[in-house]
Amino acid sequence: MRAYQTDLAHIHHTGFTGFASNAAPGLLNLLRQHRIRSGLVVDVGCGSGVWAGQLTKSGYDVLGIDISPAMIRLARRNAPRAQFRTGSLFAAELPRCDAVTAIGECVNYAFDTRSGLKGLAAFFRRVHAALRPGGILIFDVVEPGLVPGGPQRKFSEGPDWVILLEVSEDAAHGLLTRRIVSFRRAGKAYRRSEETHRLHLYRQHELLDALRRAGFEARVLKGYGRFRFTPAHAAFVARKAR
Protein backbone atom coordinates (compact mmCIF):
# COMPACT_ATOMS: atom_id res chain seq x y z
CA MET A 1 0.00 0.00 0.00
CA ARG A 2 1.15 3.50 -0.80
CA ALA A 3 1.47 5.75 2.22
CA TYR A 4 0.46 9.36 1.62
CA GLN A 5 2.05 10.19 -1.71
CA THR A 6 2.72 13.81 -2.67
CA ASP A 7 -0.82 14.92 -3.54
CA LEU A 8 -2.58 13.18 -0.66
CA ALA A 9 0.07 14.43 1.79
CA HIS A 10 -0.63 17.99 0.59
CA ILE A 11 -4.38 17.47 0.92
CA HIS A 12 -4.04 15.99 4.39
CA HIS A 13 -1.91 18.92 5.56
CA THR A 14 -4.14 21.64 4.13
CA GLY A 15 -7.46 20.06 5.06
CA PHE A 16 -7.11 17.48 7.82
CA THR A 17 -4.68 18.63 10.51
CA GLY A 18 -7.39 19.75 12.90
CA PHE A 19 -6.90 16.66 15.07
CA ALA A 20 -3.23 17.47 15.75
CA SER A 21 -3.90 21.18 16.33
CA ASN A 22 -6.83 20.56 18.68
CA ALA A 23 -5.03 17.80 20.55
CA ALA A 24 -1.83 19.80 21.14
CA PRO A 25 -2.85 21.72 24.33
CA GLY A 26 -4.03 18.54 26.05
CA LEU A 27 -0.95 16.62 24.94
CA LEU A 28 1.35 19.33 26.31
CA ASN A 29 -0.53 19.21 29.63
CA LEU A 30 -0.05 15.43 29.78
CA LEU A 31 3.70 15.84 29.34
CA ARG A 32 3.85 18.45 32.09
CA GLN A 33 1.66 16.38 34.42
CA HIS A 34 4.29 13.66 34.15
CA ARG A 35 7.09 16.16 34.92
CA ILE A 36 8.35 16.18 31.35
CA ARG A 37 8.91 19.87 30.69
CA SER A 38 11.93 19.54 28.39
CA GLY A 39 14.03 16.89 26.70
CA LEU A 40 13.58 14.74 23.62
CA VAL A 41 10.14 13.72 22.35
CA VAL A 42 10.05 11.16 19.53
CA ASP A 43 6.96 11.75 17.40
CA VAL A 44 6.30 8.59 15.38
CA GLY A 45 3.84 8.91 12.54
CA CYS A 46 4.63 12.62 12.63
CA GLY A 47 2.83 13.41 9.37
CA SER A 48 3.34 16.96 8.15
CA GLY A 49 4.86 18.14 11.43
CA VAL A 50 1.98 20.03 13.04
CA TRP A 51 2.41 18.44 16.49
CA ALA A 52 6.22 18.50 16.16
CA GLY A 53 6.03 22.25 15.56
CA GLN A 54 3.96 22.75 18.71
CA LEU A 55 6.49 20.73 20.69
CA THR A 56 9.49 22.77 19.51
CA LYS A 57 7.64 26.02 20.24
CA SER A 58 7.13 24.73 23.79
CA GLY A 59 10.84 24.08 24.30
CA TYR A 60 11.16 20.37 23.54
CA ASP A 61 13.67 18.69 21.26
CA VAL A 62 11.88 16.60 18.65
CA LEU A 63 12.65 13.70 16.38
CA GLY A 64 9.82 13.01 13.93
CA ILE A 65 9.53 9.70 12.08
CA ASP A 66 7.07 8.91 9.30
CA ILE A 67 6.80 6.22 6.62
CA SER A 68 5.82 8.78 3.96
CA PRO A 69 8.70 10.72 2.32
CA ALA A 70 6.16 13.31 1.14
CA MET A 71 5.01 13.92 4.71
CA ILE A 72 8.60 14.25 5.90
CA ARG A 73 9.27 16.91 3.24
CA LEU A 74 6.29 18.90 4.52
CA ALA A 75 7.31 18.39 8.15
CA ARG A 76 10.78 19.82 7.56
CA ARG A 77 9.17 23.01 6.28
CA ASN A 78 6.50 23.21 8.97
CA ALA A 79 8.74 22.44 11.97
CA PRO A 80 12.24 23.58 10.98
CA ARG A 81 13.65 23.26 14.51
CA ALA A 82 12.82 19.55 14.71
CA GLN A 83 14.76 16.65 13.24
CA PHE A 84 13.01 14.22 10.89
CA ARG A 85 13.66 10.94 9.19
CA THR A 86 11.70 8.54 7.02
CA GLY A 87 10.91 5.15 8.50
CA SER A 88 8.27 2.77 9.81
CA LEU A 89 7.40 2.89 13.49
CA PHE A 90 7.66 -0.92 13.44
CA ALA A 91 11.35 -0.81 12.52
CA ALA A 92 12.81 2.65 13.18
CA GLU A 93 15.59 2.95 15.72
CA LEU A 94 14.39 4.88 18.77
CA PRO A 95 16.97 6.99 20.63
CA ARG A 96 17.03 7.50 24.37
CA CYS A 97 14.18 9.92 25.01
CA ASP A 98 11.78 11.39 27.55
CA ALA A 99 8.52 10.71 25.70
CA VAL A 100 7.16 9.05 22.58
CA THR A 101 3.95 10.16 20.90
CA ALA A 102 1.96 8.54 18.10
CA ILE A 103 -1.17 10.59 17.45
CA GLY A 104 -3.80 10.48 14.73
CA GLU A 105 -4.32 6.68 14.83
CA CYS A 106 -0.97 6.10 13.11
CA VAL A 107 -0.37 2.84 15.03
CA ASN A 108 -3.46 1.36 13.33
CA TYR A 109 -2.10 1.66 9.79
CA ALA A 110 -1.14 -1.50 7.91
CA PHE A 111 1.37 0.10 5.52
CA ASP A 112 4.11 -2.11 7.01
CA THR A 113 3.73 -5.90 6.83
CA ARG A 114 5.02 -6.04 10.42
CA SER A 115 1.93 -4.15 11.62
CA GLY A 116 -0.80 -5.80 13.66
CA LEU A 117 -1.07 -6.66 17.33
CA LYS A 118 2.19 -8.65 17.50
CA GLY A 119 4.09 -5.89 15.74
CA LEU A 120 2.54 -3.29 18.00
CA ALA A 121 3.49 -5.27 21.10
CA ALA A 122 7.09 -5.36 19.84
CA PHE A 123 6.90 -1.59 19.27
CA PHE A 124 5.78 -1.11 22.88
CA ARG A 125 8.78 -3.09 24.11
CA ARG A 126 11.15 -0.99 21.99
CA VAL A 127 9.60 2.22 23.30
CA HIS A 128 9.90 1.01 26.89
CA ALA A 129 13.60 0.28 26.34
CA ALA A 130 14.19 3.72 24.79
CA LEU A 131 12.40 5.78 27.43
CA ARG A 132 14.18 7.19 30.43
CA PRO A 133 12.69 6.19 33.82
CA GLY A 134 9.46 8.13 34.28
CA GLY A 135 9.06 8.62 30.54
CA ILE A 136 5.72 8.17 28.81
CA LEU A 137 4.19 6.86 25.60
CA ILE A 138 1.03 8.62 24.36
CA PHE A 139 -0.94 7.29 21.41
CA ASP A 140 -4.49 7.00 20.12
CA VAL A 141 -6.31 4.37 18.08
CA VAL A 142 -9.46 3.70 16.14
CA GLU A 143 -11.55 0.85 17.52
CA PRO A 144 -14.05 -1.63 16.07
CA GLY A 145 -17.46 -0.16 15.35
CA LEU A 146 -16.30 2.96 13.51
CA VAL A 147 -18.44 2.19 10.44
CA PRO A 148 -21.73 0.67 11.58
CA GLY A 149 -24.29 -0.24 8.96
CA GLY A 150 -22.07 -0.83 5.95
CA PRO A 151 -19.72 1.23 3.79
CA GLN A 152 -19.84 5.02 3.96
CA ARG A 153 -19.00 7.45 1.18
CA LYS A 154 -17.84 11.01 1.75
CA PHE A 155 -16.82 14.02 -0.31
CA SER A 156 -14.47 16.83 0.76
CA GLU A 157 -12.95 19.77 -1.07
CA GLY A 158 -10.41 22.50 -0.50
CA PRO A 159 -9.08 25.47 -2.44
CA ASP A 160 -7.07 23.32 -4.87
CA TRP A 161 -8.25 19.76 -4.24
CA VAL A 162 -11.18 17.35 -4.02
CA ILE A 163 -11.28 13.90 -2.45
CA LEU A 164 -13.80 11.07 -2.70
CA LEU A 165 -13.63 8.64 0.23
CA GLU A 166 -15.20 5.22 0.78
CA VAL A 167 -14.80 3.66 4.23
CA SER A 168 -15.72 0.07 5.05
CA GLU A 169 -15.15 -2.21 8.04
CA ASP A 170 -14.45 -5.93 8.06
CA ALA A 171 -15.53 -6.89 11.57
CA ALA A 172 -14.54 -10.54 11.17
CA HIS A 173 -10.91 -9.65 10.46
CA GLY A 174 -10.68 -6.43 12.48
CA LEU A 175 -9.81 -4.27 9.48
CA LEU A 176 -10.88 -0.86 8.27
CA THR A 177 -10.40 0.08 4.60
CA ARG A 178 -10.32 3.62 3.23
CA ARG A 179 -10.37 3.99 -0.54
CA ILE A 180 -9.33 7.51 -1.46
CA VAL A 181 -9.57 9.13 -4.87
CA SER A 182 -8.03 12.60 -4.91
CA PHE A 183 -7.91 15.39 -7.47
CA ARG A 184 -5.35 18.17 -7.04
CA ARG A 185 -5.13 21.25 -9.22
CA ALA A 186 -2.17 21.19 -11.63
CA GLY A 187 -2.24 24.34 -13.74
CA LYS A 188 -5.63 24.59 -15.42
CA ALA A 189 -6.47 20.92 -14.90
CA TYR A 190 -6.69 18.48 -11.99
CA ARG A 191 -4.35 15.56 -11.40
CA ARG A 192 -6.02 12.32 -10.23
CA SER A 193 -4.51 9.83 -7.80
CA GLU A 194 -5.73 6.90 -5.74
CA GLU A 195 -4.65 5.29 -2.49
CA THR A 196 -6.11 2.47 -0.40
CA HIS A 197 -5.34 2.53 3.31
CA ARG A 198 -6.03 -0.41 5.59
CA LEU A 199 -6.04 -0.14 9.37
CA HIS A 200 -6.02 -2.79 12.07
CA LEU A 201 -8.79 -2.21 14.60
CA TYR A 202 -7.82 -2.76 18.24
CA ARG A 203 -9.81 -3.28 21.41
CA GLN A 204 -8.76 -1.43 24.54
CA HIS A 205 -8.12 -4.54 26.65
CA GLU A 206 -5.77 -5.96 23.97
CA LEU A 207 -3.62 -2.84 24.04
CA LEU A 208 -3.64 -2.49 27.82
CA ASP A 209 -2.50 -6.11 28.14
CA ALA A 210 0.30 -5.56 25.59
CA LEU A 211 1.43 -2.35 27.32
CA ARG A 212 1.56 -3.98 30.73
CA ARG A 213 3.47 -6.97 29.37
CA ALA A 214 5.99 -4.48 27.96
CA GLY A 215 6.50 -3.08 31.47
CA PHE A 216 4.25 -0.01 31.39
CA GLU A 217 1.64 1.34 33.76
CA ALA A 218 -1.16 2.33 31.37
CA ARG A 219 -4.56 3.98 31.34
CA VAL A 220 -7.17 4.90 28.74
CA LEU A 221 -8.30 8.43 27.85
CA LYS A 222 -11.40 9.58 25.98
CA GLY A 223 -9.67 12.71 24.76
CA TYR A 224 -6.65 14.96 25.10
CA GLY A 225 -7.65 17.54 27.69
CA ARG A 226 -10.71 19.47 26.50
CA PHE A 227 -10.44 17.89 23.06
CA ARG A 228 -12.79 14.91 23.19
CA PHE A 229 -12.81 12.01 20.75
CA THR A 230 -15.64 10.88 18.51
CA PRO A 231 -17.01 7.34 19.10
CA ALA A 232 -14.76 4.35 18.42
CA HIS A 233 -11.58 6.26 19.27
CA ALA A 234 -9.45 6.04 22.41
CA ALA A 235 -6.06 7.18 23.65
CA PHE A 236 -3.54 5.59 25.98
CA VAL A 237 -0.95 7.02 28.34
CA ALA A 238 1.72 4.47 29.30
CA ARG A 239 4.38 5.32 31.89
CA LYS A 240 7.73 3.67 32.50
CA ALA A 241 8.47 3.31 36.22
CA ARG A 242 11.09 5.57 37.74
Question: What does the radius of gyration come to?
Answer: 17 Å
Task: Please work out how many helical segments DSSP would assign.
Answer: 6
Q: Which spans of ≥5 residues are poorly predicted at pLDDT below 50?
A: none
Note the beta-strand portion. Answer: 35-45%
Mean pLDDT figure:
97
Class of secondary structure makeup: alpha/beta
> Which CATH-level-2 architecture of the largest domain?
3-Layer(aba) Sandwich
**Biggest pleated-sheet summary:** 7 strands, mixed
List how many beta strands DSSP finds: 13
Helix content: 25-40%
Alpha-carbon distance between the two ends: 40 Å
Concise synopsis of the structure shown:
It is built from six helices and 13 strands. With 242 residues, the protein is α/β, with parallel strands linked by helices.
Can you put this structure into words, describing what you see?
This protein is of the alpha/beta class and 242 residues long. It has two domains: 6-144 and 202-240, Vaccinia Virus protein VP39 (Rossmann fold); 152-199, S-adenosyl-L-methionine-dependent methyltransferases (N-terminal domain of TfIIb), CATH 2.20.25.110. The protein has six helices and 13 strands. The strands form three sheets. It has a seven-stranded mixed beta sheet, sandwiched between helices. Strand 2 (61-66), helix 4 (69-78) and strand 3 form a beta-alpha-beta unit. Helix 1 packs across helix 4 and helix 2 (18-33) runs parallel beside helix 3 (50-57). The model has no long low-confidence stretch (mean pLDDT 97).
